[in-house]
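Structure catalogue
Derive tokens from sequence
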Amino acid sequence: MKIGIITFHFPLNYGAVLQAYALAKYLRSIGHHSEFIDYQPNYHVKRYQWKWKYCGLHPTNFIYPLLYKRFNLFRSTHLKLTSRLYRSLDELVADPPKADAYICGSDQIWNPQITDFDIAYFLAFGIEAVKRIAYAGSFGKTELTQEQQKYLKPYFQGIKHISVREQSGAEVINTICGRQVECVLDPTLLIDGYESITEPCQIKDPYVLLINLQNNSLLNHAADFVSRELQLPKIVLNNYSLKLWEQKGKRLYPGPGGYLGIIKQAGYVVTNSFHGTIFSILFQKPFLTTALSGHGVQKNTRITGLLNSLGLLDHFLDTFSESKIRRLIKTDIDWKLVSTRLNEQREKSISFLKIALNN
């Protein structure tokens, strides 16, 4: 079966690119031919362009060229894209890629702050005969307004098989159109095989790795405390903040393969990133995940839901506590039990995909 996947395959974001890679790899493993619909709408691409703030001296203006090169190399090597690049919904509707099935997801494709409910991510294109499947979609929030719900209802009704990444998303869809939908794993958890794309880390001595989605005081204090307690240097990954003094430590800006290698080599991981947490678990690294604050609070449910399902909720920190961090540092994680629980959820997620593709 030929499958067209529409997701966030193009941002300078490790989780976005790696979840795309993982879904395609899994689909190949069960005999399907998949390609990513190269949909890069102008409104989204602008998020990663030159920033004029601070007279053009924003740090991303110096970091992005390097990251673009590394991410583009990964995509050209590991992600199969449609021959056509689509810059708008109109282009996609006028000339949709030919496929037996379309899959939208995963990642925050339904987050109105990112896509403004772009109906391309609800598969509102292509001929009617194409199967339409939503896999592990996310709203990035727990509630929608009544106006938003009314707007989305017909688009969800047009997708035969729907699954979401968070339970909060399932509740949102049930409210919108009265459908019970499945909660499945993020695609990165569908597979174990990252060895072929994991690049060796050049830092051989043990270190505490800080992976930040959001630069906040809880994350910084926790990482500094773990570094002092373990007497290990700190490495900072994926930090574009101007406030460099808030996160002391060597900074690295790898491509997706290097990102995996740096996590795999870490002695301890402190993060508030969803995918930073996932890869800490997959590589069985001792870790601590701190809460997001401010506008990111609603995203905490995706992390707490996952950790709770794997029996790891104790590794989530919503307030700074020296005693709790010390206890976690000294307590080994029962990775055998975590693997058992993960495999149970993996089977459920795989079952959803197989049923959706065969019906």
